[in-house]
Amino acid sequence: MKKKNSRDNRSVTAVVFGYHNIGYSCLKTLLKRGVRVALVVTHEDDPREQIWFKSVSRLAARHRIPVITPDGPNVPEVVRRIEQAKPDVIFSFYYRCMISPEILRIPPMGAFNMHGSLLPAYRGRCPVNWVLVHGEKRTGVTIHHMTEKPDRGNVVAQKAVPIRQSDTALTLFNRITRAAPPVLEQFLRLMAGGRLEGKPQDQRKASYFGGRKPQDGRIDWNRSAQDVYNLVRAVTHPYPGAFTEKDGRKLFIWWGTPVRGKVSGIPGTVAGIRGGKVAVVTGGGTFIVHKASSEGGPEMKAGTVFKANGVAVGDRLGV
Predict the structure, then answer these.
(1) What is the DSSP letter of 237?
(2) Would the CATH topology of 11-209 be identical to that of 214-308?
C-alpha cells in the first residue's frame, strides 16, 4: 500500500536543467518512465570547447519539449518560464550553473541534482577529473536535494563505481553515465512512494574542488610517477591534456605509464629515448611517455615528438 503522499510518476510534471551525456541519459530515463517534462533548460555549446557528448537540446526537440538556453538561469524571465511550467519537481543533471533559492522553492516536491561523485566527497566541479588526479579507487553518482550551497543537501540515492588503474576521464565518465539512469530509476521509485526525505550528509567527510583550467594540466615532475600518470589520465582526450615545457615550448603528453623503483637524477630529466618512448625521472620512479604532441601539432610517438623539438637524453623538462 502506497503512502498517503505517494503519486504515479506519470502524473508528475518536471522541469529539467541538463547538459552533457548524463543530462541526455537522465532526460531519456524520465521520458521512458512517463514523467511529463514541461521545460528543459540547457547550455549553448561553447565553440572553444571540444563537443564530444550528446545533445540534451536535440533530445528535447525530438520529443517536442520547449528548450531555453539562457546565459544564466537566475534571471526574472527564466524564473517566470519555470513558474509557468508549474513543475512538481525540478531536476539538475550536469547543468553547469548554480540555481537560485528562488527557483529551488518553486516545485512542491523539491529540487534534486545528479552529482558525479559519492557525496559528501568531491563536491563541486569536475569530480570525474579530480578523483583521477587524486588516485581514488572508487567514485559514483548521487542524487541529492538541492540547497543554496552546492552539493550539500540530503542524499536520496547513490551508486558506487570502481576506478580502474587503466581508466581515463573519458572511460570513467562513460561508466558513471551508465550508472546514472539506474540511480534515477531508484529515485523515481522512492518518489512514487513518497519517500524523498533522504539522508543528511556527513559534513566531516566532505571535500570540495573547483573547476579545472587548461593550465592545471602542467606536470610537476617532483611528484611520483603514479601522480604524473594520474594527472595524464585525468586530462587526456577529450580534455585539454597534460603538458610540460622545454625551452619555452609546450609538449603535451597524452599517454604514458608509471614505473616504480629508485631512480637517480633530478626530477624532470630525460633518462632515455628508445623505441618511440621517452623515460623521464620523477620524484618517485620513472614515467614512460608513450604518446605526445607539440602545441598545436598531431599526436605521435613520444620519441618522435621529443626529438623534433630538440629534446635529448639528459635534458630537463619543466624548468
Answers:
(1) T
(2) no
pTM score, two decimals? 0.92
Q: What is the pLDDT along the chain (319 residues), one digit of tens a residue?
A: 334 455 677 789 999 999 999 999 999 999 999 999 999 999 998 877 788 899 999 999 999 999 999 999 999 999 999 999 999 999 999 999 999 999 999 999 999 999 999 999 999 999 999 999 999 999 999 999 999 999 999 999 999 999 999 999 999 999 999 999 999 999 999 999 999 999 999 999 999 999 999 999 999 999 999 999 999 999 999 999 999 999 999 999 999 999 998 888 999 999 999 989 999 999 999 999 999 999 989 999 999 999 999 999 999 999 8
CATH number of 214-308: 3.10.25.10
Pick from 258, 250, 268: which is nearest to 305 by CA? 250
How far is it, in rounded angstroms, from Cα 187 to Cα 52?
28
Q: In which residue are the cell numbers 580502474 written?
A: 164
Give me the residue spans of the domains in the chain.
Answer: 11-209, 214-308
Give yes or no for a contact between 59 and 28, defined as CB atoms under 8 angstroms apart.
Answer: yes
Q: Among candidates 254, 278, 277, which has minimal Cα distance to 268?
A: 278
Name which CATH class applies to 11-209.
alpha beta
